[in-house]
Amino acid sequence: MKVSASSLRKGNVVDLEGKLYVVLSAQNIHPGKGTPVTQLDMRRISDGVKVSERYRTTETVERATVDDRPYQFLYQDGEGFHFMNPETYDQVVAAEDMVGDAAPYLQDGMQVMLSTHEGVPIAIELPRLATFEVVDTEPTVKGQTASSSYKPAILSNGLKTMVPPYITTGTRIVVLTEDGSYQERAKD
């Protein structure tokens, strides 16, 4: 199906000359003079090569037919990341390079949106927030106020993030999966 280049967003899949590309970022640029353009940074699904394309906003591109469904993360092994469709119990295996930066955020049983093209996983969308335990951080210093600067912490998934000074080792916190930034203390 043909769509205007300016309507594409991150995660959309396009078909260029018979090859599928997933959009990593889409930016509409409106210069003071001239025609507005859309800058697309994309990754070729077959081999992971990244490309940048620029289209006039009036140009159209072929959007691939993709099946977006909720899947449940099961486990990771040598084959890749295993997901299950909760309605049909069908399982699919996603390659490590397809999951990419989302890998550390995946937890057993986590619901994700998986985009498949002809049964092959091509893109993943995580829930916006995820909860992890702080496994290592600097001790709290008496007299430090909550408005002071953040301190580094290592989470149970191995990622590093910055947390407020009152967060201690063993505290469960909620992070934004887009960039791993601290949001709040977990309410459980």
Automatic annotation (TrEMBL):
Keywords: Cytoplasm, Elongation factor, Protein biosynthesis. Pathway: Protein biosynthesis; polypeptide chain elongation. GO terms for cellular component: cytosol. The keyword Ligase does not apply. The keyword Protein biosynthesis applies. Involved in peptide bond synthesis. Stimulates efficient translation and peptide-bond synthesis on native or reconstituted 70S ribosomes in vitro. Probably functions indirectly by altering the affinity of the ribosome for aminoacyl-tRNA, thus increasing their reactivity as acceptors for peptidyl transferase. This is Elongation factor P. It comes from Phenylobacterium deserti. The gene is efp.
